[in-house]
Design goal:
The structure holds 3 protein chains of 3 kinds.
Chain A (H helix, E strand, L loop, with lengths): L7 E4 H12 L1 E6 L6 H13 L3 E4 L3 H13 L3 E6 L1 H17 L3 E9 L5 E5 L4 H6 L8 E3 L4 H18 L2 E7 H5 L1 E4 L45 E3 L13 H16 L2 H4 L2 E4 L6 E5 L3 H14 L4 E6 L1 E3 L3 H8 L4 E6 L5 H9 L4 E5 L8 H10 L2
Parallel strand pairs in A: 2-3, 2-4, 4-5, 5-8, 7-8, 12-13, 12-15, 15-16
Antiparallel strand pairs in A: 1-9, 5-6, 7-14, 11-13
Chain B lengths: L28 H15 L7 E5 L14 E4 L5 H11 L4 E7 H7 L1 H10 L4 E6 L34 H7 L4 E6 L3 H13 L4 E6 L6 H4 L5 H11 E3 H5 L3 H4 L3 E8 L5 H26 L1
Parallel strand pairs in B: 1-2, 1-3, 3-4, 4-6, 5-6, 7-8
Antiparallel strand pairs in B: 5-8
Chain C lengths: L2 H11 L1 E9 L9 H5 L5 E2 L8 E2 L10 H5 L5 E10 L3
Antiparallel strand pairs in C: 1-4, 2-3
Classes of the chains: A alpha/beta, B alpha/beta, C alpha+beta.
Chain lengths: 378, 289, 87
């Protein structure tokens, strides 16, 4: 494993690829799509260097399917795409949720909808990350706001995915993906890697969806002596299809509980100046950088403004948001969309307390636009 | 004179905790294909831990749960793509991918073509009953022209796909077709396909007497089984037939059996190349200091 | 000796392969394939859609058409000592 002790200029996409390598990813399947193609190209070069495997599939649906298949074989697996490809992947993402197979899906968000503008950023896939696949299901989604953070959150994404046996979505945007920043990555040997829990019983006694530590199924990779069945149908402890209410209902409860009981681990965020803030800005992704500048300008004018930067987008950090906004007069939610995470903030804090700053035209939100929202209510 | 076979070999491979009789209609050919697969695996003396069976959606998709291998029931049309990922990271496994004609050739057509083109080491078994049975007998890419189907109440106007010929054109290493009547031949082709390193396809012709068969009044399972027997001929027989005699006939046999490099073996060479490249880079860095 | 007599002698000396057929009634769906295709009509349907029965066990020649074609693995054949007798 080659470490990268020297600082160099790197794109977010490349940092994502390196984060995957550092996390122990050994399989990538993907399809070329702007602005995520670089992740595939870097991994095409880097994965075989570390004994991993890369394949360019015939489409995005095949890509996510291959990723899930490889994960069943025991490999930490990644795919990367943008809006149109993310839309195609939804069915199989649901399959991974249902079957509790770890995998990481990177969506480098472009301006949508549809083909949109591939070389412009947006945060328009936030709700899709939550509800893109059909049926009631939980999901974990993370969003970095710098190249270095992309490396770190990619590692986190793999670790959450393995620890909770769930697909994890990493929401980049075109700006973070394509911007070059100077980063000094850590020695990969120092990066924390989480492995699947596995089982503690012999094969004859093995039930893939039972005997849970922390509600997480003890899934063992294929080919290691434990033979079992995986299906997207509702299933019992052995993985066999079932219609029984006394098997389906407990499964539903466990799937959600699996994530909810571990929020203290999963919810990642940064707070700055929240304690005595009169106004709190809640931001994520590239927009968090605009927010920082806007807040800086407001503070220079003597305003007490705090920043809550969310790195975990889903599950939504309800209590964190409530606490941060408790003593504030109002909250500003800037997003490169027409209000998606704002819907969650409004649900939790009430619409009157929330001021949205939106654009969905492919341009980043300007710090002055955020400043105006901070000041407008004063 | 053939050796008497050990009886009840199937029971060594069926999952004991699974409810029997199986879910398929009485007389369905899918159970017959499963039997042929089991006997083929047994004849190859494979370790169950090394065998995976992956399916798509449909009646054929219900096959893997019954058998004591590493099994996966995936999404409609995508079984070959799931299998590709598993094969890449577990190249030593024998991966059997079972699909119906609709699953493999309609929604799954793209993955079918590319899995064959890559020559990735998978054994695809397509149970071709010329319809979407589970949903009630709609037309599929292999439904013959002019027949009635649930979504062709006035008669079918499309041409059917020749699955085996398609796989040959897509560069598969081994392609064979047989029927659920000709079980011993079917079992032999399946064993050959599994033993083959590259992408192998066995097209198992079957029937659906409960949906398409009923719509077209083709009779009982036995009637449709008899039709399969009468309509299928070997390559040699087909060659000797006139244009008129050939109408409606199904050709059984091996269409292609070629030795071409298998995908995961080729990728091992890529890993070797990448490692050498990396080592070369590191040597240059050392030299530059 | 007439032509018929020598026929009978030949038949008597030929050893016919024989099999013992067993049906698992819980697994048999009565689809009728084994009944229709058995070359010696060993099996019969019961007429109520239930399991088939081994009506003429002595006629089984262990061809295994039934065992190899049963979609439900509900029938199997064991080889037993070949006997002299008519086919």
């Amino acid at each position: 494993m080659t470490a990268k002790p020297i600082a160099r200029l790197m794109q977010g996409d490349e940092a994502c690829a390196e984060g995957a390598i550092a996390a122990g990813c050994t399989f990538f399947a993907g399809y070329p799509i702007t602005p995520a193609t670089e992740i595939a190209e870097v991994l095409a070069r880097r994965l075989p260097q570390v004994g991993g495997k890369f394949i360019q599939m015939e489409d995005e649906i095949g890509s996510i399917a291959a990723v899930i298949g490889a994960s069943v074989g025991g490999a930490k697996s990644l795919t990367a795409t943008s809006g149109p490809g993310f839309s195609l992947m939804q069915e199989n993402i649901g399959y991974a949720v249902m079957t509790e197979i770890p995998c990481v899906i990177v969506d480098v968000q472009r301006l949508g909808p549809s083909t949109g503008r591939p070389t412009s950023p947006s945060q328009g896939d936030v709700m899709q990350a939550r509800w893109g696949t059909h049926g009631d299901h939980p999901i974990i989604a993370l969003s970095p706001s710098s190249v270095r953070e992309t490396f770190d959150l990619t590692v986190r994404a793999f670790n959450f995915s393995e620890r909770y046996c769930t697909p994890v979505i990493l929401l980049l945007d075109e700006v973070i993906g394509h911007t070059r920043e100077r980063v000094a990555l850590p020695d990969y040997d120092t990066v924390e890697r989480v492995e699947r829990t596995g089982t503690t019983v012999p094969p004859e006694w093995y039930k893939p969806y039972a005997n849970f530590p922390s509600d997480v199924p003890p899934l063992v990779p294929f080919g290691e002596g434990y033979r079992y069945h995986i299906t997207g149908l509702h299933h019992d402890e052995r993985g066999y299809p079932t219609n029984r209410l006394d098997e389906v209902q407990p499964w539903l409860e466990r799937i959600f509980r699996k994530i909810e009981r571990s929020l203290s681990d999963i919810l990642l965020y940064d707070e700055d100046g929240i304690e005595d803030a009169e106004v709190v800005v809640i931001a994520y992704g590239a927009t968090a950088r605009s927010a920082r500048h806007g807040i800086g300008m407001a503070r220079e004018r003597g305003r007490k403004v705090g920043l809550l930067k969310l790195k975990t987008i889903w599950p939504f950090a309800e209590e964190v948001v409530e606490r941060a906004a408790a003593q504030a007069r109002h909250v500003v939610v800037p997003e490169m969309n027409l209000g998606q995470l704002a819907l969650e903030v409004e649900r939790v804090l009430g619409r009157d307390k929330v001021r949205r700053v939106n654009r969905a035209d492919g341009e980043m939100i300007k710090p002055t636009e955020i400043l105006a929202a901070i000041e407008e209510w004063e | 004179m053939k050796q008497p076979r050990e009886s009840r070999v199937h029971e060594k491979y069926l999952r004991h905790h699974k409810k029997f009789p199986n879910v398929w209609c009485a007389g369905c050919g899918i159970g017959i294909v499963l039997g042929a697969i089991i006997r083929a695996v047994d004849s190859l003396q494979l370790d169950k831990n090394d065998v995976a069976m992956i399916s798509g959606i449909g009646c054929t998709g219900r096959m893997p749960v019954y058998v004591d291998f590493n099994t996966m029931h995936t999404t409609h049309g995508r079984a070959l793509a799931f299998a590709t990922g598993l094969k890449m990271v577990r190249p030593e496994m024998k991966i059997i991918v079972v699909m119906g004609d609709g699953d493999a050739l309609a929604i799954g057509g793209n993955h079918f073509i590319h899995a064959a083109r890559r020559n990735i080491g998978l054994t695809a078994i397509v149970v071709n009953n010329s319809t979407y049975g589970m949903t009630g007998g709609q037309y599929s890419p292999t439904t013959p022209t002019d027949v009635l189907a649930a979504t062709a109440p006035y008669g079918h106007i499309e041409q059917p796909f020749p699955i085996s010929e398609l796989a040959v054109a897509a560069r598969a290493a081994f392609v064979a077709r047989s029927t659920v009547y000709h079980v011993k031949e079917l079992e032999k082709y399946i064993a050959q396909a599994i033993a083959k390193d590259g992408f192998s396809l066995v097209e198992a012709m079957s029937y659906c007497h409960t949906t398409l068969g009923r719509l077209n009044r083709w009779g009982t399972a036995s009637d449709m089984m008899r039709r399969l027997k009468e309509q299928s001929v070997t390559h040699r027989q087909y060659e000797k037939m006139s244009e008129e005699e050939r109408k409606g006939k199904l050709v059984r046999g091996v269409f292609v059996d070629r030795d071409i490099p298998e995908y995961t073996q080729l990728y091992d060479q890529i890993i070797e190349r990448a490692r050498q490249h990396l080592a070369g880079q590191q040597i240059s860095k050392e030299a530059a200091r | 000796m007439s032509a018929d007599d020598s026929e009978n002698v030949r038949k008597k000396k030929r050893k016919m392969p024989r099999g013992r057929v067993t049906v698992f009634p819980n697994w048999c769906k009565g689809c009728g394939l084994s009944v229709e295709f058995c070359p010696t009509k060993v099996l019969e349907e019961q007429g109520n859609g239930g399991s088939v029965i081994v009506a003429h066990p002595e006629k089984c020649t262990a061809c295994r058409w039934c065992e190899l074609h049963c979609p439900d693995f509900a029938i199997f054949v064991v080889d037993i000592e070949p006997e002299e007798g008519t086919a």
